[in-house]
Design a protein that fits this description.
By secondary structure, the protein is of the alpha+beta class. Strands 2-1-3-4 form a 4-stranded mixed beta sheet, covered by helices on one side. Helix 1 packs parallel to helix 3, helix 4 packs antiparallel against helix 5 and helix 4 packs parallel to helix 6. The longest helix is centred in the middle third of the chain and has 29 residues. The protein is globular and about 45 Å long. This is Glutathione S-transferase N-terminal domain-containing protein. InterPro entries: Glutathione-S-Trfase_C-like, Glutathione-S-Trfase_C_sf, Glutathione_S-Trfase, Glutathione_S-Trfase_N, GST_C, Thioredoxin-like_sf. Pfam families: GST_C (PF00043), GST_N_3 (PF13417).
Length: 201
């Protein structure tokens, strides 16, 4: 049996839950693992964590890759080297560049965390986030409807969650027409309303 550990408000847990909905894959979801249990599963003490029998895996994008491969879903993660690399390129960009950009403004304005004041650093964070969303918009202008080409892939899943968070964070946002049209297309995917555009930032 598959088990997924992590609260459903976590953006990284939600991307896995959205993928599971698309795979029509039953997973036992444990929203709040005990701290000692989490430390045993993941030395970083972070979620999500996936357990597949005796196999334990952490890092949300790695979990998504594993589940798509496990399910034989080459439409989501292609088998050919160049097509797969294109999908993984945008997944890695989401996990590194994009996540680093939004951290301060999101923590200040949505989580209202005391360590992240809503000051000039928050505005700088938003400006960098907006710039990178412009990069994504430019990419979508060159493809046939989705991030890595003309089909829905794991790149759309991870970046769809990031885009929903961008929409949900207060502040000035540029008009990005290709991004807006793509996000509307994502609404057609199973699990979108439940795990993406569900009122959680």
């Amino acid at each position: 049996m598959l088990a997924l550990y992590g609260k459903p408000t976590s953006i990284n847990v939600r991307k896995v839950l959205w993928l599971c909905a698309g795979l029509d894959l039953h997973v036992q979801h444990e929203p709040a693992p005990l701290p000692d249990m989490l430390a045993t599963l993941n030395p970083n003490r972070q979620v999500p964590v996936l357990r597949d029998g005796d196999f334990v895996l952490w890092e949300s994008n790695s979990i998504c890759r594993y589940l798509a491969t496990r399910g034989g879903r080459e439409d989501l993660l292609p088998a050919t080297a160049q097509a797969r690399a294109r999908v993984e390129q945008w997944m890695d960009w989401q996990a590194s560049d994009l996540n680093s950009a939004w951290r301060h403004v999101f923590m200040a304005r949505v989580r209202q965390h005391p360590d992240y004041p809503d000051d000039a650093r928050a505005e700088a964070s938003l400006a960098q986030w907006n710039r990178l969303m412009g990069v994504l918009d430019a990419q979508l202008a060159t493809t046939d409807g989705h991030v890595a080409g003309n089909t829905f892939t794991l790149a759309d899943i991870v970046l769809g969650l990031s885009t929903q968070r961008w929409h949900s964070t207060p502040g000035h946002k540029p008009v990005l027409p290709h991004l807006a049209a793509w996000f509307e297309r994502l609404r057609q995917q199973p699990g979108f309303a439940e795990h993406v555009d569900n009122g959680v930032a």
